[in-house]
Every structure is written in structure tokens, then in C-alpha cells.
Amino acid sequence: MASRHHRPRRTTAVAALAAAALALPAVTACSQARAAADCGALAKDVQRDVGNLRRTIADDSKDPQSGQEFIDRINRDLGEVTRRTGADTDSDGESPVKDAIGEVTAAVDDIQDSVGDGERPDVTALSKAAGALTTACTKG
Q1: How far apart are CA 52 and CA 29, in angstroms?
Q2: Among 139, 135, 140, which Cα is nearest to 46's?
Q3: pTM
Q4: In which domain, by residue range, is 49 found?
Q5: Overall number of domains in the chain
């Protein structure tokens, strides 16, 4: 009789371990899906801020500093994309999201250089880079 009581416990333990093993990939997949959704949402925020920056620069051509609020927002959103996707630009390995973040960062740097030089910045490269970020985020 002792063996009869022992088997159900072993069966229960094996079933619990099997369930945990099956759940782990689902949790990982869910986490990756959430990171992709966060990336996509933040990429749309960057796109919106680029559009606002473009309009601000066009509307107030006498003050190149007028778009700084949107530059700050873009930089903040890039930091969030990097953090949420694990696309740390200092780490080894390439990914489309990491590459796109680098493109947006370089374009923002160019705009800040133009503003610092008192010039009216060209937002074309930033618009293209923001589009590349949106594409990279949606492709995962």
C-alpha cells in the first residue's frame, strides 16, 4: 500500500514540471511580443515628434532653438526603445532595431549641431531614420 500513495505524488510532481516546462516558452514569447509592441508604440511616438519638430522648424524659422522640446522627446523615446527592447547601442551584435536607433541618434545629433551653429536644421534624414525605426520595430 505504501507504493500506491507514493506514485500519485510522483505523477503529480512530473505533471507539474511538465506544465512549467511548457509554460516557459509561452511566457518568453509573450515577453517578446510585449517588447515588440512597446517598440512599435514608441517608434510611432518618435514619428509624431519628428513631424512636430518639422512643423515647428518650418513655422518658426527665425529661432532654430524652437524645436528643442521635440528633440528632447525624441531622445527620451529612443532611450525607452533601447531599454525596453534590449537594443543597447553599446552591446555587441547587430539588430534592425539597434541599427535604426543608431540612425535616429545620428540624425538628432546632426540637427543639434545645426541648431548649435545657428542654422535652420534639415529634418529629412531624421524623418527617414524614424521611418526605419518604425519598420524595424514592426518586423521584430
Answers
A1: 35
A2: 135
A3: 0.71
A4: 34-139
A5: 1
